[in-house]
């Protein structure tokens, strides 16, 4: 197997963070347990004939920890970008996990907002290939980024 390029490892870390956050919410499992399962049994593994790419473990762990530590702040940020009738608690759980992971990366401020938006829009497309969710994700994340880092626009 060839080595996974660094940029692809970051993209994989973001995707896996969304999946892990979804799993944490759906199962009620603590972050540590889900994080360890992903790192030990999914990163770079072959599961059911599907090869999972290796991921940037540091980014994966950082996103999960940031969501857990600042979930209320991230959810408020997301709620401000959503229509009043649809707070984050009412949206699809996959989108909720995606907004939390993206919000965590925006709050950290280490990655340019446009990169965060593009990466998570691509993740939305992978989960919802035939829907309008990618446009919705783009609009919500753009709003969130303008609140977190308005000077970037």
What does this structure look like?
With 153 residues, this protein is mainly alpha-helical. A two-stranded antiparallel sheet has the order 1-2. The longest helix is centred in the middle third of the chain and has 25 residues, at 57-81. It has a single domain (6-147), classed as N-utilizing Substance Protein B Homolog, Chain A (Orthogonal Bundle), CATH 1.10.940.10. Helix 1 (6-27) crosses helix 2. Strand 1 and strand 2 form a beta hairpin. It has 6 helices and 2 strands; from the N terminus they run H-H-E-E-H-H-H-H.
Question: Topology of this protein?
Answer:
Blueprint lengths: L5 H22 L3 H11 L4 E2 L2 E2 L5 H25 L11 H16 L4 H15 L5 H16 L5
Antiparallel strand pairs: 1-2
Helix pairs in contact: 1-2, 1-3, 1-4, 3-4, 3-6, 4-5, 4-6, 5-6
Defining traits:
single chain; 153 residues; mainly alpha; N-utilizing Substance Protein B Homolog, Chain A; two-stranded antiparallel sheet; 3% strand
